[in-house]
Amino acid sequence: MTDTTGMTELTGDCFSCQNDLHLAELPPRERVAADEHWRVAHAIGTSVPGWLVLLPRRHVTAIAELSDAEAAGLGTWQVRLSRALHAVVGCEKTYVAQFAEAAGFGHVHFHIIPRMADLPEDSRGPRMFQQLGREAHEAVPDRRMDEIAVALQRELAGESVS
To answer: Among 91, 133, 137, 96, which residue's Cα sits nearest to residue 115?
Structure first.
């Protein structure tokens, strides 16, 4: 559904928008960082510690719907988060991907995925997504996601602005 400005409105079944409405009450894993346009959360149901999602604070379902202001911050956030993940989890590089196709997760979001140096070849690239949608006993525990989130918050707060 779109409003009179052509922007997509919040839908009641959007997990991302529902969480954004209660940002101050969320655990650290759901509010790693935020600004006027973007929120960062630790991905749920993943076996990869530090797998982040970067979400617009406004409900959009396609990249083309991003405002100029949202678009301007996108690249900066991706680089800042990649640097912070490198410092906190020691990844060799990060993967960045955007699909927003899973049921209940049509809200545009960017995956910022830490790729460790010892990741087996058969799990690299798009195959990394085999580590998402895991059962609770295989997924990063909430407590660990919160620890990573707090460490990332500290790292992001301490970074120098050039």
So the answer is: 91
